[in-house]
């Protein structure tokens, strides 16, 4: 009897050790929320600020209200939190020191622009140089972007359907066409639309083709725009000119924020589209944030929906880039979902993934969508996610 019990002890000890090790690893991997609000010296919040852990290539953008949130591990505590925005001096602080602060508030000081006559060019010459130097200024070797991509479909000015995709893209930057797209996670709200429209491809492709720098059959001929300098600012100590172009015929303005050191593009505005770029630890630029809202002309709406709320339909889009991976061994992407309407993609719902994802603070974009969806029938959005995505 004693012999049999004795033989079982090593097995019991083994299981106990495995449990202790597993618990220890789980504890070590517990995420720490790094959050705060960014202000200028007059106590006004600053939107769309680049927030990064430079050493690890992870980061986000502040919301329209200047708020940010990133989930980090203990491995990032000794790294630097870097804050950069057009028009302000950059700010850096050790992550551990920032977390030790009682008030999670960052104040940026406006930078002084000192442009000289030597660098002044004709407006279109800045644009030409930006295009010419695009491959040099952006990450142009294969890399992986990971981002949260959101879309709300509205009818009659109210959100009727909301979908979020977590996407991985094997890309080479804006100098090239968009690379392989993998939709790895999906969650949807209830669908209250009258017209349950599906797009023939994923909305991420419109984000790419709508970028006036990326090659596509929809790329505008920038030579046929009238360009003028409308202002200047700075980014991390670099002088930046603001150049606005309007087409000679038709509509659709484009505004570029172009740095004068190497003619890198930090921001693009195109009608209701916004593209924000930030520096990678390599010094090269990559996409950090995107938003857009666009609607349909009546001729694009099926006649059976004329006279209903569906006659006034729009899409609201927003994307936050989480991570940029340049290690060739870690950039494999499986083609999936890139040619499918993002609201029609069927994937297993992993509730833990969404609970553990470093979600951005609720933006005005998201608050409005959430309020409108919940106001239709009084069902909380989180409950809609639970019911729809089983």
Rg: 24 Å
Stretches where pLDDT is under 50 for at least 5 consecutive residues are 14-28
Task: Report the portion of residues in β strands.
Answer: 25-35%
Mean pLDDT: 89
- Total individual domains: 2
What kind of sheet is the major sheet? 10 strands, antiparallel
The succession of helices and strands, N to C, reads HEEEEEEHEHHEEEHEEEEEEEHHH
Helix content: 10-25%
The general outline is: globular
Alpha plus pi helix count: 8
Structural class label: alpha+beta
Distance between the termini: 50 Å
Task: Write up this protein.
The chain is 21% helix and 35% strand. With 390 residues, it is of the alpha+beta class. It is globular and about 60 Å long. The model is unreliable at 14-28 (pLDDT under 50). The strands form three sheets. It has a ten-stranded antiparallel β-sheet with strand order 10-9-8-17-16-15-14-13-12-11, with helices on both faces. The chain has a four-stranded antiparallel β-sheet with strand order 3-2-5-6. A three-stranded mixed β-sheet has the order 4-1-7, with no helix packed on it. It is built from eight helices and 17 strands. It folds into two domains: 32-108, Carboxypeptidase-like, regulatory domain (Immunoglobulin-like), CATH 2.60.40.1120; 117-388, no CATH class.
How would you concisely characterize the structure shown here?
It is globular and about 60 Å long. With about 400 residues, the chain is an alpha+beta fold. Helices cover about 20% and strands about 35% of the residues.
